[in-house]
Design goal:
This protein is of the alpha/beta class. 20% of the residues lie in helices and 31% in strands. Strands 5-4-1-6-11-8-12 form a 7-stranded mixed sheet, with helices on both faces. α3 packs across α6 and α6 crosses α7. The radius of gyration is 22 Å and the shape is elongated. The N and C termini lie far apart (60 Å). The model has no long low-confidence stretch (mean pLDDT 89).
Length: 356
């Protein structure tokens, strides 16, 4: 087994920007197009020919382990690596050093989704053999990301969230490293956030004369850290949906690319794709518009929903229209019958509510 490239998926972190959704669950397990985000990373590893994957976990470890198990569902051999505190991506690399055993490895941030996977990155690394290969993509707001400055096809500088970006090339959360990343991660100091930043570790490689090469992403990439990014990733994935009906359609109109999963029922309703209705979900007297994912065990009654994600076991009844929304698990939404009509809200921390 020696010499075979391993994978490292980071699935710690607290998901503060997705609150209140992630107060109760790991951000990497939030479903996009009815599949947990983390599963896209596992599929990318498998499709790139990687067989052994370490998953770095933090306080949401029990949920991640329950969802992924031993990795057998993907033909992977998964090992869990505990990161006691979220002290940065370079810290996660050091925590995983013993597991990685000085071998080359692919590191993948568990809340990223890449349309084209990582096969091309792994092949490019194996052909070129630099000390590190980083994925980059052109972005509209480079100041929100780690940004790379290139010269003669090599990376000469990385800047984290720069006020004055040297380029529009942002680091995508996927990297290939050789063993020199461990000494670089040990050599850096924590940033102002108190974290060991992977950008600082890669910069240290460059400063020490090691070769860091870039590869540009051709398809789309999404870091699903914010609600609007989740909805956008959902839209992009649903655009590639192949229609499939494993459910039941009664007196209804199902138009375009729609997937009805096992036991889903659509009664006296219209579903316009691309959309996906989860296992055992009931849609009755309702309209489900494009770019909507409804997870398993939900009930949508006498309501309209479009461009939204609804998580498992939620019930929405009698709501005229919901759009651009992310609705958590086991949520109940219904109109008040009381007069005078008033809003009565019980909201999680950091909620944002717009009322019309």
């Amino acid at each position: 087994m020696k010499g075979e490239m391993k994978g490292l998926i980071l699935s710690g972190g607290l998901g503060t920007r997705l609150r209140p959704i992630t107060h109760t669950s790991a951000k990497q397990l939030v479903p996009v197009a009815n599949k947990p985000i983390l599963f896209y990373g596992l599929e990318a590893m498998r499709d790139a020919g990687i067989k052994r994957v370490g998953i770095v976990v933090g306080e949401t470890a029990p949920e991640v382990k329950a969802a992924v198990g031993d990795g057998g569902a993907w033909g992977l051999e998964v090992t869990y690596i505990h990161q006691p505190e979220p002290l940065g991506l370079a810290h996660a690399v050091l925590v995983a050093e013993e597991y990685l055993g000085g071998e080359e490895f692919v590191m993948y941030l568990g809340d990223n989704i890449l349309k084209e996977g990582i096969g091309g990155l792994v092949r490019a690394y194996q052909e070129e053999r630099p000390n590190a290969l980083i994925l980059l993509t052109r972005v509209k707001e480079p100041e929100r990301f780690g940004v790379a400055e290139l010269r003669d096809g090599k990376v000469v500088r990385l800047v984290e969230k720069p006020k004055d970006p040297p380029s529009d090339l942002a680091l995508v959360g996927v990297y290939v490293f050789d063993r020199h990343i461990f000494e670089a991660a040990r050599a850096i100091k924590p940033s102002w956030r108190g974290e060991l930043e992977i950008t600082d570790a890669i910069q240290r490689l460059i400063d020490d004369g090691y070769e860091v090469r870039p590869k540009l992403v051709k398809g789309w990439w999404k870091d699903t850290g914010r609600p609007e990014d989740l909805l956008e990733a959902n839209r992009l994935l649903l655009e590639e949906l192949e229609p499939e009906n494993r459910g039941e359609v009664v007196d209804s109109e199902v138009v375009g690319r729609v997937v009805l999963q096992e036991g889903a029922r659509v009664v006296r309703s219209t579903v316009r794709g691309p959309a996906i209705i989860g296992e055992g979900t009931l849609v009755e007297d309702s309209y489900i518009g494009p770019f909507t994912s409804i997870y398993y065990g939900c009930e949508i009654l006498e309501s309209e929903i479009e461009h939204s994600i609804v998580l498992e076991n939620s019930r929405i009844r009698g709501i005229r229209r919901i759009e651009d929304s992310l609705i958590g698990k086991e949520v109940e939404v219904s109109p008040s019958q009381e007069k005078p009509r008033a809003f009565r809200l019980m909201l999680g921390d950091h909620s944002k509510v717009k009322v019309i």
